[in-house]
Amino acid sequence: MSEQTAQRPFDIGYVLSHTARHMRKSIEISIQKTVNRIPEFAGDRAKSEEVFMTLSALHALKSQVDEFLAAYNSGPQGEQQ
User: What is the pTM of this model?
Assistant: First the structure.
């Protein structure tokens, strides 16, 4: 094992939790930016529908990430955070 590896241990729990938290933050940014654009499409029914379908998909994705974090962090590997 190299000296650098010994100083930087690898932990699957940290990597997966950290990645999921970044995903959640990116989803929240996308939701906010999409909500901010709703007024632009007030007169365009097709675009408005697309905006709301996008928001629905983003919220579903956020729920999946939240469920993953909750399930992963509740297990024995989550205690290593």
Answer: 0.76
